[in-house]
Structure formats: C-alpha cells, structure tokens
Amino acid sequence: MEINALPKYDMSDNPTNCCPRFHPEGWDNQELHFKEKLFVKADTISLFHMPINMGSVFSKTLGAIEKADATGDTDFIVLSHDPSAWCAEHLFAVTKEVPGQEMVHLSGDYMTKVFEGPYKNVAKWDKEMRSFIEESGKQVKKSYFFYTTCPKCAKYYGKNYVVAVSEV
Questions:
Q1: At 151, phi and psi to the nearest 5?
Q2: Distance CA 142, CA 83 (A)
Q3: Domains of the chain
Q4: Extended strands (E) in 1-141
Q5: Angle 152-8-65 (CA atoms, 0-180°, nearest 5)?
Q6: Could you report the per-residue pLDDT of 29-76, keeping only the tens digit for each?
Q7: 150 burial type by CB count under 10 A (0-12 exposed, 13-18 middle, 19+ buried)
Q8: Cross-referenced InterPro entries, in alphabetical order (predicted)?
Q9: Which letter does DSSP use for residue 19 in this model?
Q10: With 0-12 CB in 10 A as exposed, 13-18 as middle and 19+ as buried, what is 148?
C-alpha cells in the first residue's frame, strides 16, 4: 500500500447507526507503511484486559474528532494495545490535529491479518499473528488490534471481525 494509506472502510454501510458493517476484503495480509501518520491517543481502564470505560472514552474521543472535522471518508482505523491488564491505549487515525487531544505520529511498517470470533480469542490471535509474521522472516515490534465493531453491532451483523496490525 502507499505510505499512510489504509484499506477501504465503507462508513455508509451502517444499518445500526453505530458501527458500520465491516467488509474484510482488502484488510487481510496487507502491508501498511506509515510515515508520521497522525492519530489521537486515548486511554481506557481495564480489569484483567476487560475494558471498563471504553464506551464513554470512545464517544468523547470520536466527538472531539468529528468536531474538529478530522475524519477521513475511508481512512478509518482505531489501533488498540494493552500495555497491561489494567489499561489500554487506543489510537484513532485522523486527518489533522484535534484540539484538546493527545496526538501521536506513527512511522514504520505493519502487517495485517483478519480474524473472526469472540473477543476472548485475542491472546490466541496474537500468537497466530506472531507465528504468521515470523514465518515471513520478520519480527514483531508491537501489536495492535482493530476491533471493527462494538459487541452490540457484532451481534447484529452476526460476525465479529478483528484485525491484527503488527509493526515489523
């Protein structure tokens, strides 16, 4: 993919008026290349990796991003990473600086793999992703997950797609 480009994300296919329906085509086995790609960083509290305040943090952060008109039509991803069992960090791709928010720039090469199933499989998917990358002769530096839908929307759509995004 081109530098700072993401696979297409169709925001218009949204019968729930919450999370758009995720179409995994184009997201699996991709190589992403970021150079100072801009993100808003938000942190959530967890209890043994189970998010406690994710809904309110995401609503507040997405509201600030929309207010700043910093969303792209198809350039959408939220990269989530758990530095510990007690907290998680989330990076929201944006098109410009968002006032009042912590901004992060990512640079590097990333590989993706799409998984489908319950959120409890994340540890298993992380192992699979690490094996997949090591088989390609590369090493994982840091792993993120893109949770494409909230639990309510995943139930509505009958599919729960999660994209592993690992820096190599």
A1: -55, -40
A2: 10
A3: 31-167 (3.20.80.10)
A4: 31-47, 50-51, 78-84, 87-93, 102-116
A5: 65
A6: 999 999 999 999 999 999 988 889 998 999 999 999 999 999 977 789
A7: middle
A8: Bact_hydrolase
A9: S
A10: buried
